[in-house]
Write a structure and sequence with these properties.
- The structure holds three protein chains of three kinds.
- By secondary structure, chain A is α+β, with helices and mostly antiparallel strands.
- Chain A contains 15 helices and eight strands.
- Chain A has a single domain, classed as Orthogonal Bundle (Cytochrome-c3 Hydrogenase, chain B), CATH 1.10.645.
- In chain A, about 45% of the residues lie in helices and about 10% in strands.
- In chain A, strands 1-2-3 form a three-stranded antiparallel β-sheet.
- Chain B has a domain of about 240 residues.
- By secondary structure, chain C is α+β, with helices and mostly antiparallel strands.
- Chain C is built from four helices and ten strands.
- The longest helix of chain C has 18 residues.
- Chain C has a domain of about 110 residues: Alpha-Beta Plaits.
- The N and C termini of chain C lie far apart (about 55 Å).
- In chain C, the strands form four sheets. A three-stranded mixed β-sheet of chain C has the order 1-9-10, with no helix packed on it. In chain C, strands 5-6-8 form a three-stranded antiparallel β-sheet. Chain C has a two-stranded antiparallel sheet with strand order 2-3.
- Classes of the chains: A alpha+beta, B mainly alpha, C alpha+beta.
- Chains in contact: A-B, A-C, B-C.
- Chains B and C meet through helix 5 of B and helix 1 of C.
């Protein structure tokens, strides 16, 4: 296995040919996600070596954080992970609140609203995952279904926050707006509707005999490998390791809602599909509980921080959450100024990138797209 | 005019093919008294229905096949859209996009036929024409009624398979002439797929032939007076349908055109009208296969109530066609090695088993 | 894979597919119909309750009589997208002696709405108008006079009817025209 064998000035086409093996460059123009290149060496129809080549969509988010204050950082941090924008906001806001020392002043209602939006986003992100996985398999029906059912929750999110994708909803001290009228009823209806839809997804994706032919036993990740390589999120749990930040290190008010963490033993492509279907169901359960708690709850949603109080004391803060793709964490250092001194973002896609060479080994070329996408790798998120 | 276009028009072989086709058509029409016979029949009433010129141009020839192909494309898109909870074609023709196929046809005809610099021009241009020709030939031997068959032939079941086995060759011709890796891989896949699925299809088509004791499709249909062969030869019928899906490159056997792997397979380099001809050829093949299925297993033009025999054939073949069109939205594409394993393994075994099952059941019911 | 497993899975898929043939279609026919999920309310900041009102974050609306030209929105936007610049407007404004007001470049705006949060004088709002496409980039630069007027009605030809999403578990989700 060779990590990042390429150096500037050396092109894949010029690499020496290893006896009868061909080197193929997939990408960097959009091999199904953002810009990202996959260099695979094939022997006949079988991949012997796969080498991810990231960095095409690096935006310098961490450096950008250093020149903006704690509120101005909100919109641009959403951009790398637009499909899961609440997922990346959550750890940032938790870390920022810790360093601004307003952690205890966040109202309870705001904490529940944060959980609500994060779970909305988890479902939205998983639906997008299913859509692209289906189109890689040549199955356009699940693509259209997922894209349509995403819409239900995106409309609800727009009702709550005012935007469909980039919510900019979490702020240090709480959330920006309250529950609108009619929101609770519509959300409960949506939960019921999506639950009935999940049965159809299970039929089309898991019971489908041709799906089984394509995905069972393909791209297997063993539990030992998954732990050693530092896999996070659904990919880790699909290999049989029960590890979810919401359970092992509860943040916000996740310890007051009931849910269980689904796991599968097989660790193949099919189990990574199944785990996401199960997680959507669990998320719908959390949404239902949270919405019932929010119904009739009074009180403020935001502890308003005045401009002067946005100046943090020197120190450091760390927060981690379970985003849709896995563990997302922020580490903020402040030197007492208006802006952070240093922000380190750790994204699940970056951690999961190390799985690509292991998973793609001994896989047929026709299966490369589905195995690659099954870990839900998002280049923009990994490059930040 | 750019250099490439000039190349095509100057190419001697291109004009040779075109003039050959034109001469053949003119010669066939003018030779003998085909045209005069047609005019005589036309004024004499229903006799025109069995006139060879009418058969080949109107029904069940060119006009019928083109209309059914156009309707099938529209219905396929609408069914897929309905299963996928979306609308599908909507604007052309005001009502539910009913003229979408016409609009697409005009659009395709208006586009430039791009001939890449590196292709073998003669075969690149000839492949789509040949493909449609093979498709149209396959419809000539399938009887719609004892009299409605363009080319009556004593062993037309065998002739049908002989014609259909030319399809992979046109795909290979297109892929090879394109001089493109994706095209060549797609063409090789098409060759593998269609060659390996012809055998189970032929074996399962033998079951009704054995039950009827004839290789002539008309005889096979007449032998189904008491009971359609679907019941004794149920396994053969299923295998025939599955193999026909593979032959027409529909899901789950859409492997030669796998768009997430090899762009558009052997059709990658094609655009404009030649691309349309390929698409039309695939649909014509689908129509002739579904009509053959109707004749072999669903008792063809025989029906419980008295209708014109052709009407029964058309109605039944549409039911079969709808199965073809619906399956597309339900299954993903399988892998090439799985497809070959299935074709030479379980499908072949099942088709032989279906043959014996059909004979045994046929003895039981006393056919 | 066992034959029974194959067959039962096959039948399940076919059953699911055929059931969808009688379900309603979910597609929103966009140019004719439009879903505005948020309540008909302007998105604005309520300093007293420390929260925003619920509304879609679209084109801004500026109250010229309340704006004091304090530049808080400009300062906020500078770190985000740099869409807001202050420009001088001719005329007498009792609360705004210098006569400077924000102008917004919608070629740059990201519609985060943090400028609305920053406005402590209750002068800046956001409307639900999201269709802002223009042929010319310069036309996306809205001056104070333009954003102080409510968005114009779209031409009749493309004016959308309001629709809402009905979530019906049995017959499928579909859009219907909203009453009132």
């Amino acid at each position: 296995m060779s990590y990042y064998q390429l150096v500037p000035g050396v092109y894949v086409e010029e690499l020496p040919e290893k006896e009868g093996k061909i080197t193929v460059s997939i990408g960097p123009q959009h091999p199904g996600s953002g810009h990202f290149r996959l260099i695979i060496t094939i022997d006949g129809d079988v991949v012997v070596d796969a080498d991810p080549d990231p960095g095409y969509v690096h935006r310098g988010e961490e450096k950008m954080c250093e020149t903006r204050d704690y509120i101005q950082n909100i919109p641009h941090l959403e951009r790398p992970v637009v499909l899961d924008s609440a997922g990346i906001q959550f750890p940032y806001i938790l870390a920022a609140e810790e360093i601004l020392d307003i952690k205890d002043k966040v109202p309870e209602k705001a904490k529940y609203l944060r959980i609500l939006l994060a779970e909305f986003n988890r479902v939205i992100s998983h639906f997008y995952f299913l859509a692209i996985q289906a189109i890689f398999l040549g199955h356009s029906t699940v693509l259209e279904w997922s894209m349509a059912d995403r819409e239900v929750l995106m409309d609800l999110a727009a009702m709550l926050t005012g935007a469909r994708v980039t919510f900019a909803y979490f702020v240090p001290g709480g959330v920006r707006s309250d529950v609108p009228s009619g929101f609770v009823d519509q959300t409960l209806k949506a939960v019921g509707y999506l639950r009935s839809r999940m049965k159809e997804y299970w039929r089309m994706l898991v019971d489908n005999p041709f799906m089984k032919m394509r995905m069972e036993g393909v791209g297997v990740l063993k539990a030992k490998d998954a732990i050693e390589l530092g896999a996070v999120g659904p990919n880790l749990r699909a290999s049989g390791v029960e590890y979810d930040i919401r359970k092992v290190d509860p943040y916000s008010l996740y310890d007051t809602v009931e849910f269980h963490v689904p796991t599968y033993k097989e660790g193949d492509t099919m189990s990574r599909i199944k785990i996401r279907l199960d997680e959507i169901n669990e998320s719908l359960g959390i949404i239902e509980q949270v919405v019932r708690k929010l119904d009739g709850m009074r009180g403020p949603v935001r502890h308003l921080v005045k401009g002067a109080a946005l100046r943090a004391k020197p120190g450091e803060a760390y927060a981690r959450t379970e985003a849709a793709r896995g563990m997302m964490s922020f580490y903020i250092i402040s030197d007492g100024g208006r802006t952070p001194y240093r922000v380190k973002v750790d994204t699940p896609s970056f951690r999961n990138m190390k799985l690509i060479p292991v998973l793609l080994k001994d896989v047929r070329v026709a299966d490369v797209p589905i195995v690659f996408w099954s870990i839900d790798y998002w280049p923009v998120e990994a490059d930040r | 005019m750019d250099a490439q276009t000039k190349d095509v028009r100057d190419s001697v072989s291109f004009w040779l093919i075109i003039s050959l086709v034109v001469i053949l058509i003119i010669g066939w029409v003018v030779e003998g008294d085909v045209l005069i016979d047609f005019l005589v029949d036309l004024v004499s009433g229903p006799q025109v229905l069995t006139n060879p010129l009418f058969l080949s141009i109107v029904f069940p020839g060119l006009l019928y096949v083109s209309i059914v192909a156009a309707v099938a494309i529209y219905v396929e898109r609408k069914i897929a859209a309905k299963i996928q909870i979306r609308i599908g074609p909507q604007y052309a023709g005001r009502v539910e996009g009913i003229l979408q196929v016409v609009a697409d046809g005009i659009k395709m005809a208006a586009k430039e036929f791009v001939i890449p610099r590196t292709v073998d021009v003669t075969f690149f241009v000839a492949a789509p024409i040949l493909s449609l020709t093979v498709g149209m030939l396959s419809i000539t031997v399938v009887p719609f009624s004892p009299t409605t068959v363009i080319f009556p032939f004593p062993v037309n079941l065998l002739l049908f398979f002989a014609i259909v086995s030319f399809f992979p060759l046109t795909a290979l011709l297109a892929g090879w002439a394109s001089n493109n890796k994706f095209s060549l891989i797609g063409a090789a896949r098409a060759l593998f797929q269609q060659a390996s699925y012809e055998i189970p299809m032929l074996i399962s088509a033998l079951a009704p032939a054995l039950l009827a004791g004839s290789l002539r499709i008309e005889d096979i249909v007449m032998a189904q007076k008491d009971m359609p062969f679907l019941f004794p030869a149920i396994l053969s019928a299923i295998i025939f349908l599955a193999a026909a899906l593979a032959e027409t490159e529909k899901h789950p056997f859409e492997i030669p055109e796998a768009d997430s792997e090899i762009v558009a397979g052997w059709m990658t380099e094609y655009s404009s009208m030649p691309y349309t001809l390929f698409m039309l050829a695939v649909y014509v093949k689908m129509i002739s296969l579904s009509t053959l299925f109707t004749d072999l297993f669903l008792s063809g033009w025989l029906g419980p109530i008295s209708l014109p025999p052709e009407a029964w054939t058309v109605v039944k073949s549409w039911i079969v066609l709808l199965i073809f069109l619906t399956v597309r939205a339900l299954f993903p594409r399988i892998r090439i090695d799985q497809m070959l394993k299935m074709g030479w393994g379980s499908m072949l075994l099942l088709s032989v088993a279906g043959l014996f099952l059909a004979i045994a059941l046929g003895m039981v019911v006393g056919l | 894979m066992k034959a029974s497993e194959f067959l039962s899975g096959f039948l399940k898929v076919v059953e699911s597919g055929l059931r969808h043939l009688v379900r309603k279609r979910m597609t929103l026919r966009y140019p004719e119909f439009l879903v505005v999920p948020a309540p008909d309310e302007l998105f604005g900041f309520k300093p007293g309750e420390a929260r925003d009102t619920n509304g879609l974050r679209g084109r801004h609306l500026l109250d010229l009589d309340r704006c004091t030209g304090c530049r808080l929105c400009e300062i906020t936007c500078n770190g985000i997208s740099g869409a807001i610049t202050m420009v001088k407007v001719e005329g007498q404004f009792p609360r705004n002696k210098r006569g400077i007001f924000p102008s917004i470049d919608y070629g740059r705006c990201v519609f985060c709405g943090l400028c609305v949060d920053a406005c402590i004088f209750d002068a800046l709002f956001m409307t639900d108008r999201e269709e802002l496409a223009e042929y010319d980039r310069a036309a996306l630069l809205y001056g104070p006079e333009e954003i102080s007027k409510p968005p114009k009605e779209l031409p009749v030809k493309i004016r959308a009817k309001r629709a809402e999403l009905i979530l019906d578990e049995r017959r499928g989700a579909h859009h219907v025209q909203r009453k009132n």
